[in-house]
């Protein structure tokens, strides 16, 4: 499959779907972006998933009465393809006029269609994770630092002190990148949990801000951050999660980690 972002419906006027249409889902192979940063297909340095939150899900019951719900969709990072966000929105909207005999049939249909396009089993459940009541980790956003580079990402900014080993969770709400097709801004809170040499917080903030004018999909940005931290700071354990703000009734939360790290608690950021 050679789908590229430019082949998708992003940035184009698309008719609102009147009928159920699984072909609206647009898969993009992950490996192209991974090749750019040196991640081999047969030796992924991480585990993880892409967790989508859907706020605008609706369909008709067997008698034609509308039903509404929210949903959480989880795509494994080992899937050959990611699902482009606008295509996911259009696909979910195509269910609006479709009758289902049961709520379970809705979940089964969405999971089946997404799994076929992503190339791996996708989990779909009704409902959303709770909101995080307090900020997670220690924010680095208040650091007194002068910044003048906003893209492309500068991995060489990253540094760590090999003489001091720590375990900590650092967070920032200043992660911003841009859609590689439309140029629209994508905003996120990023949480970095690591064990190993103490990461220089000032340089970490400079690095995260260097994504500000960078054009790349959410999932790819998180994989780049994970790869750069692993290569330049040498943590023994690492987890990177980004919670992107909502667009078109969807938000995405990519997570990548070394195999020894636990799956983070499912929470939503206040900005979502």
UniProtKB/TrEMBL annotation:
It is found in: Cytoplasm. It comes from the Bacteria. NADPH binds at residues 85-86, 247-248. It holds the Pfam family QueF_N. It catalyses: 7-aminomethyl-7-carbaguanine + 2 NADP(+) = 7-cyano-7-carbaguanine + 2 NADPH + 3 H(+). Substrate binds at residues 83-85, 218-219. Residues 16-125 form the NADPH-dependent 7-cyano-7-deazaguanine reductase N-terminal domain. Its EC number is 1.7.1.13. The keyword Ligase does not apply. Keywords: Cytoplasm, NADP, Oxidoreductase, Queuosine biosynthesis. The active site is at 179 (thioimide intermediate), 186 (proton donor). Pathway: tRNA modification; tRNA-queuosine biosynthesis. Catalyzes the NADPH-dependent reduction of 7-cyano-7-deazaguanine (preQ0) to 7-aminomethyl-7-deazaguanine (preQ1). Belongs to the GTP cyclohydrolase I family. QueF type 2 subfamily. Homodimer. This is NADPH-dependent 7-cyano-7-deazaguanine reductase. It comes from Pseudoxanthomonas japonensis.
């Amino acid at each position: 499959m050679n789908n590229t972002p430019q082949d998708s419906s992003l940035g184009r006027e698309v008719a609102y779907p009147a009928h159920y249409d699984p072909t609206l889902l647009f898969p993009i192979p992950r490996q192209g972006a991974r090749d750019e940063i040196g991640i081999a297909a047969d030796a992924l340095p991480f585990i993880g998933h892409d967790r989508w939150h859907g706020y605008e899900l609706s369909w008709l019951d067997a008698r034609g009465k509308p039903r509404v719900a929210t949903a959480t969709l989880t795509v494994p990072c080992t899937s050959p393809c990611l699902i482009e966000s606008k295509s996911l929105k259009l696909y979910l909207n195509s269910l609006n006029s479709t009758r289902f005999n049961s709520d379970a049939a809705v979940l089964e249909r969405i999971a089946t269609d997404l799994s076929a396009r992503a190339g791996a089993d996708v989990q779909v459940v009704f409902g959303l994770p709770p909101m995080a009541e307090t900020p997670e980790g220690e924010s680095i956003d208040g650091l007194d630092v002068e910044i003048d580079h906003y893209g492309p990402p500068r991995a060489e900014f990253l540094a760590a002190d090999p003489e001091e080993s720590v375990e900590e969770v650092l967070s920032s709400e200043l992660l911003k990148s841009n859609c590689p097709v439309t140029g629209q801004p994508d905003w996120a809170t990023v949480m970095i949990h690591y064990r190993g040499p103490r990461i220089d917080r000032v340089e970490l903030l400079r690095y995260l801000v260097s994504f500000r004018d960078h054009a790349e999909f959410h999932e790819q940005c998180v994989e780049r951050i994970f790869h750069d931290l692993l290569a330049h700071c040498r943590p023994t354990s690492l987890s990177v999660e980004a919670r992107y703000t909502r667009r078109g009734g969807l938000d995405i939360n990519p997570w990548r980690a070394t195999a020894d790290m636990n799956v983070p608690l499912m929470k939503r950021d206040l900005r979502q």
